[in-house]
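Before relying on records like the one below, remember that each one covers exactly one chain. Contacts with other chains, cofactors or solvent are not represented anywhere in the record.
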Amino acid sequence: MSQVFRNSLWLLLPTILAGCSQESSQVGTVAIVDLDAVAKGLGEDLELGKAIVAKRKELAAELTVLRRKLDQEYKTMKEKLGEDPNEEQTKKLRSLKQKHAAIIRNAQLEAEYKASAHNNKLIGRYRAKARPVAKRVASRMGFAIVMLKNDSLLSYDDAVDITNEVVAEMLKEADTP
């Protein structure tokens, strides 16, 4: 095969492929869905937000109770040692204060972990509910693949965004008994 013929073939290949893809419509193309926008369209973003805030308040209240308990323990020990503790007693107080500080730090870390796990669980439930609807809508529209809109997606044609259709489908399903 001559070099000129091969180069010509490479130049014509995009035109040939474009012609082929026009016949198949959107089959094989990728659909995009923005699950944050779907949640907002359904009002679930507010419900998720409320549940997340409630969990954080619950965890903060538990931390407050723990702090008060530890403060009371320290205060009791300090009162027991009197106004003028000796060097050994002062070391014990200092050691107790450090121990309590470590307990609080660990409790804060655990609370953050619990809050994060709670958030992930709620978001996971919502996504599990939205995922089959997005797949069904995409399939009905002739898309073979559905991707989530996120920061790693640089650009896309609005024609492949099925977010509004997913919202409409989920609203329709919510109205159906």
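The two ends are 66 Å apart (CA to CA).
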